[in-house]
Structures are given as structure tokens and as C-alpha cells.
Amino acid sequence: MPAVSAIRETGALIFNTGVGIDITPGAVSIAVLKGSFTGIRIAARGIFEVDGGRNPADAAADMAAFINGFIRDHGMAAAQVYAAMPGEHCILREITFPRTVRENLRGTLAYEMEKYVPFSADDVYFDGQIISEDRQAEKIRVLLAVLKKADVQPWLQLSSRLETGFSGITIAPAAVANYFIHQHEDIAGPVMIIDVREDAFDLIHIREHALVYARTIRIPDPEADIFPIVAAQMEQAGKTFCAEDAQIRFTLYKKAGSASLRERLAGLSRFEPINDPPKVPGLSGEEAVTAVGLALKGLQKVPVQLEFMPPDQRRRPDRRGMILMLVLAALLVLSGMAWIGNHFMARQAVSAHLDMEIERLRAEADVILKKESEIERMAAHLKYLSGLRPGNRFALDVFRELSERIPETAWLRELRLLGDAVTLSGQAASASELIPLLEESPMFKDVKFLATIRKDRDGKEVFRIGLTLSK
């Protein structure tokens, strides 16, 4: 349904708000973007300098207090909030796979993780994105991005301190790439972005609107001339990722004093500075491109979709804006009908009709919100139960088989599943009858009593049975 999809995307742009938070050891930078009928505009910005002398716990508390206060002061509690961490700890690998793995790309990456990085999938947060596809050769190229869980943990802890929490966590180079692609969507060729910070710079390589390489290079002396280091890194990346005769365009994001460095880099033989005007002038100063690139995720689908926050810790998107849009759209239709019908009916009757419809729509919207919340809760419970898989059987299958085999004269007080081992405890009119009933099941084997049968004060036989799940 292209029309429905277009309406939904337009509504998301108009009614949604995106908050981007760029977090570095020295500062927290926040940008708020709002959508409107005329496009995207920056609604608010804030920056907090972190005291380098404070211990990490106190610094994190200061950051959380600043972020919470900023969101409260600007009424952004319903907005999606995305954060970025520095990219220096992220490992990026470009991998070629058969096209058939795209249906289970994440599972394939997890299974083969140790081929590409010196960690197992259990020790890292990772994401993968298809960056190109060759249908003739039946191949896809995938960007694998990996972060050790220990490196992400401080950002997860900061999210838990916030009143809203983060909707997602990515790396700064991904946010910068999304900002550049949004501002220069017509540039598809090889591009290098140099994002200079206080004591380091990110070298980011984009090709066909896809992130293919990013590296953080530390600056030994912030007061020294960084041109030789930047030029050497650009030359090396050009040799590695671009054809020998390819002309590479570049742009420079720097807090101050970038003109001289830009001119000197333009003197390199195969590099051409980007002089095209941005799509939205004034959307961000160069010092806030990361935060703005993050905020874009709250308004639209962005090309670089690397995400490292576990799904169960992400803040759920607030759908009230979309529901409000549908209600307002319905009201707009009704208003149009009323305007046309004004020639045929009295104004007072039309007004009364609209009032009734508005109240009805409000009531329906409330019902939808309540049902949606209930559906999400039930779906989460079902997904959790369906996903339990001790040993070789899903938990729901084991529950179903036990409910069919155990008679109504027996009651289970406790059921434990550990690997393939199952332990049942309870009371029955005749505990000895349970053993043959359970042995008849093809799902169970090695059925036996684990303790002597005894009787409780009601005359029921208390039993404890152990069994093993079949392969």
C-alpha cells in the first residue's frame, strides 16, 4: 500500500520529534529536531561540559541530571531519544556473503563471529547492514559492526538513570554519516568525512550512501598541526577502498579553524572538497553534526542503521503522535464535509454533528490506546514463553504434554527445567499411577521417583518425579 506508507511517513515527519545526544568523555551535546509541513527544523540545542576531575559515577550522575532537566524544560518526554558513543572501540568489517543469508543475516553473523573478530557473539553487541548487492553474482556485501559489552555498559547505565531512557545507541561515525547523507543526498560517489574533535578525529568513508569504513585517530598534541596525520590517513583509506584513478570528494567538520586545514587537504592530488550547499542550511553548526544526525532517526528512516542497544532495554516508541495524526486527519475530513454541507444544512446542526463526532473519535482513540497496550503486553508474554527452550524442547511443548498426561486427580506444585532434565513435585490420589502415564509419552524418558512417596495431612500422596526430555 504505497499511499498508506506515504501518509504514514509524512505523518511521522510532521508530528514526531527527534532528540540526539552526543556523549563524549568531555561533553554532552543535545540537538532536538521537529518535523513540519515545510521540512525539518532544529528546535533546541544544549551542551554540558563534563568536569574531567570528577569520578566516573559522579560524572554520569551530572550527565543524567542535565539530560533529564533539558528534556523536561523543553517538553520532550514523548520524543525518541538516540545516543552516540565514540567510535574508537568499534570494530568494522566488510564481509561478502551469498544472497541467501540475507533472510537470517543476524544469525549468520553471530554464528561466524569469531571468524572476523577476536570475540564470541556472547561477549559483544553487534549489528550488520547490507551495503551493496550483486544480483548477477548472487552476492551481498555486509558491514559488520562490533562493540564489546563492557564498552557499551556505561551508556546503558546512563540510560537507566534517565526518566525517558534511550531509544537506541549507535556510534558517532554512523550519526555523522547520516547527517552528511541527509544534507547531500545527491552525492553518491566515494566520500571521506573528517570529523575533528578535541583530541581525536574520525575518518569516515561513504560509498553509495552506505558507511563502509570509519576509524578514530588520536591526536598526540591538540596544539600541533594535524594536517600530516589527516592527509596520511586519507591517502591510506583511498588506496584501500577506492580505485586507483577514482576522484574522492571530502568534507571537514571541525569546531574552529577548519578553513586552513580544508585548503591544504584540497591540495592533495586525488581529493576534491565538497562545495555543494547543504540541503537544509543552518540545520547544525559543525560542532553538533553528531547530535543532529542522531535526532534524524526520530523523524525518518536513516541510511546507516547500526544499533547496539539490546532490544529489551530500548525505550518503546510513543505511538500517540501517529494516533493523534489519524484523529486529526479524520477531523479534517469531517471539517471538509461540514464546509461542503454548509450550503444544505443549518450551521448549528453541522456544529452539533461535529461535536458528537469529535467526542466519538476521542473515545475510540482512548480505546485504541488501551487495546494497543494490552496487545503489546500479551505479545511480550507469548514471545517470552515461546522463546524458552531448555534442552531440546520448547517450554510450551513440555507444558502441553504434561497437561495432557497428568490426570485431574494430581496437582503440580513445582516444575523445574534445567537443560534436558525435568523435576515434578506435587500431590496425587495415587502417585504410582503417574510413572506409566509419563513413560507412554514419546517426549519423556528415564521417568523415576526422586524421593519416597509420603502422604500429607489430607491423605494425598506427595511425590517428586524426575525425567529426561527425549532428543
How does the SSE layout of this entry go?
Elements lengths: L1 H14 L1 E7 L3 E10 L2 E11 L6 H18 L6 E6 L5 E8 L6 H7 L1 H4 L7 E11 L4 E10 H13 L6 E4 H12 L7 E6 L3 E8 L2 E9 L8 H15 L6 E6 L4 H9 L4 E3 L15 H7 L24 H22 L5 H41 L7 H11 L4 E9 L2 E8 L5 H6 L4 E6 L4 E2 L5 E9 L2
Helix pairs in contact: 2-5, 6-9, 10-11
Biggest sheet strand line-up: 3-2-1-4-8
Could you tell me how far the N terminus lies from the C terminus, measured between alpha carbons in angstroms? 45 Å
Report the top-level CATH class of one domain: Alpha Beta
Helix residue percentage: 25-40%
**Residue-averaged pLDDT, rounded?**
86
Outline the biggest β-sheet: 5 strands, mixed
Q: By helix and strand content, what is the structural category?
A: alpha+beta
CATH fold name of one domain: Nucleotidyltransferase, domain 5
Shape: globular
Instruction: State Rg.
Output: 29 Å
Question: What is the number of helical segments per DSSP (H or I, 4+ residues)?
Answer: 13
Report the sheet-strand fraction.
25-35%
CATH architecture of one domain: 2-Layer Sandwich
Beta-strand segment tally = 18
CATH homologous superfamily identity of one domain: ATPase, nucleotide binding domain
**Which residues sit in consecutive blocks of at least 5 with pLDDT less than 50?**
1-12
